[in-house]
Amino acid sequence: MTDTAVERTLILVKPDGVARNLIGQILARVEAKGYRIVALEQRIADADLLAQHYAEHVGKPFYQPLVDFMSSGPVVAIVAEGHRVIEGFRALAGATDPTRAQPGTIRGDLGRDWGLKVQQNLVHGSDSPESAEREIGLWFSGR
Ligand code: IDP
């Protein structure tokens, strides 16, 4: 096995995860994998923060419903640290659409299939080292 650099990623427990009391279950999966929680805060995200966070999706048909959903209740922002945690957390999260996510993943095991919208998929995880740095700066600036 080759050594890999320790990375940090930004995880969000989205409003559906908070409303369904799944914060603990999601954190337990992150910690069980061996990742360290290095920062954690529950807050309500405003439109400005979400516009920056989802800048790559501005103009897409699902952008406004996504932002409305993400500001509909508290989210938990988490910085997790570990070897290959960026890729590793995305594997733990599973496919974007919970109806396609594999069993064993957060979205596959806990995501619901009750005609919910794709945006209600419980968690966000940064998709690259560049995104992780940018997103951690957005959510935890000045901390
Ligand atoms: P990811 O969260 O799996 O990385 P992205 O493609 O970055 O997925 O999309 C960001 C978020 O936007 C998704 O988690 C989901 O909440 C929402 N989203 C993505 N595609 C759609 C769609 O086709 N319809 C509705 N919401 C979507």
Automatic annotation (TrEMBL):
Which cofactors does this protein require? Mg(2+)
Molecular-function GO terms, alphabetical: nucleoside diphosphate kinase activity
Q: Please report the stretch or stretches of sequence annotated as the Nucleoside diphosphate kinase-like domain.
A: 6-143
Per UniProt, the enzyme's principal EC class comes to: transferase
Q: Check the record and name the InterPro entries matching this protein.
A: NDK-like_dom, NDK-like_dom_sf, Nucleoside_diP_kinase, Nucleoside_diP_kinase_AS
* Cell compartments where the protein resides: Cytoplasm
Q: State its Enzyme Commission number(s).
A: 2.7.4.6
Keywords attached to this Swiss-Prot or TrEMBL record, sorted alphabetically, are:
ATP-binding, Cytoplasm, Kinase, Magnesium, Metal-binding, Nucleotide metabolism, Nucleotide-binding, Phosphoprotein, Transferase
Q: Which SMART domains match?
A: NDK
Q: Which Pfam families match?
A: NDK (PF00334)
User: Which N-terminal residues, if any, form the signal peptide?
Assistant: none
Q: Which superkingdom does the taxonomy of this entry point to? A: Bacteria
Where's the active site on this chain?
A: 124
Give the reactions, separated by semicolons, that this protein catalyses.
a 2'-deoxyribonucleoside 5'-diphosphate + ATP = a 2'-deoxyribonucleoside 5'-triphosphate + ADP; a ribonucleoside 5'-diphosphate + ATP = a ribonucleoside 5'-triphosphate + ADP
Which residues bind ATP per the record? 14, 62, 90, 96, 107, 121
Q: How does it assemble?
A: Homotetramer.
* HAMAP family per record: NDP_kinase
Similarity comment text for this entry: Belongs to the NDK family.
- Main function: Major role in the synthesis of nucleoside triphosphates other than ATP. The ATP gamma phosphate is transferred to the NDP beta phosphate via a ping-pong mechanism, using a phosphorylated active-site intermediate.
Descriptive protein name: Nucleoside diphosphate kinase
